[in-house]
Amino acid sequence: MAHDSSQCDEPLNWGAAFFGWIMPGLGQVSIGHAKRGIFAGSGILGLFVGGLLIGGVDCVDRHEDPLWFYAQVGAGPIALASDWANSALLKSGTVGELVDTPSPLPRATPAKVSSFKTVTPANEIGTLYCALAGLMNVVVIFDALKRTRAEAPAGSGRNR
């Protein structure tokens, strides 16, 4: 089986990879694959927002679930904004009152959580959806990093 070395010689699209992390699908759009970028971006953002709707904003939490957060941050700044909203609104008591939780140790100080914190399996499903969106975006970023630029159609004016 012959190996085509021409694909290995092409430069990587680091700008497209960066744009793909900033906004899912934007990397493909920036190198001329608009339809691919729009489909990928809408799928990733739909999955992430669906996770937030199912599990609540507390399903993105870098302090309580750091490994899940590493996967979620692949979706871009939307994961960082969701974590900020969780910390600034729910964990601070700005939204909802802070209530004591049962402590597993007899003399330990009980932790306080927001009354809006989700403690059902819906939170776990939302966490999973957001993590899958982040991992899917990492794959899309790698695709934008290696994909060749689309040729502009003749007469479109993009060749100037």
Q: Note the main sheet.
A: 2 strands, antiparallel
- What pattern of helices and strands is seen along the backbone? HHHHHEEH
Compute the number of helices: 6
The average pLDDT value, as a whole number, equals 84
Please indicate the percent range of residues in DSSP E strands (runs of 2 or more): under 5%
Structure class: mainly alpha
Q: Quick one: how many beta strands? A: 2
Can you tell me the residue ranges where pLDDT is under 50 for at least 5 consecutive residues? none
Walk me through the structure:
The structure is a single chain. It contains six helices and two strands. The chain has 160 residues and is mainly alpha-helical. The protein has one domain. The protein has a two-stranded antiparallel ribbon. α1 runs antiparallel to α6, α3 packs antiparallel against α6 and α4 crosses α6. It is elongated, with a radius of gyration of 21 Å. The model has no long low-confidence stretch (mean pLDDT 84).
Notable traits:
4% strand; mainly alpha; two-stranded antiparallel sheet; 2 strands; 160 residues; 6 helices; single chain
Can I get a quick summary?
The chain has helices at about 15-20, 25-30, 35-55, 65-70, 75-90, 120-145, and strands at about 100, 110-115.
Draw up the topology in text.
Blueprint: H1 14-22, H2 26-30, H3 34-55, H4 66-72, H5 77-90, E1 98-100, E2 112-114, H6 121-146
Antiparallel strand pairs: 1-2
